[in-house]
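User: Design a sequence. Structure:
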């Protein structure tokens, strides 16, 4: 494991906090769906919960990707053009892989 610089360490802990939060939400959605049981007819609410769960899973996958990029030292670099992504953009979208120009 690489020794992280202070900004990398800050981003990593921010991403891990967000990941924990999303995983908690996902657990709640799953628990709510399970408690209703498989024999209940599927209504709109179940579909919405499933869609929300998909969105949350995609965000967790994005965060995992960002955590891997921090580990390999390429976090904060645009995947398309290779320039550094601004700190403001990373604060707003910690899992982003492109700069504002390439987004
Ligand atoms: Zn770019």
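Assistant: Done.
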């Amino acid at each position: 494991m690489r020794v992280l610089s202070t900004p990398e360490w800050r981003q990593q802990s921010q991403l891990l906090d967000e990941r924990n939060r999303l995983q908690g939400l996902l657990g709640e959605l799953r628990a709510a769906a399970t408690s209703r049981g498989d024999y209940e007819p599927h209504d709109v609410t179940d579909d919405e919960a499933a869609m929300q769960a998909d969105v949350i899973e995609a965000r967790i996958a994005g965060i995992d990707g960002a955590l891997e990029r921090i580990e390999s030292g390429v976090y904060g670099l645009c995947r398309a053009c290779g320039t550094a992504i601004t700190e403001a953009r990373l604060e707003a979208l910690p899992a982003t892989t492109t700069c504002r120009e390439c987004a």
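The chain is about 65% helix and 0% strand. The mean pLDDT is 87.
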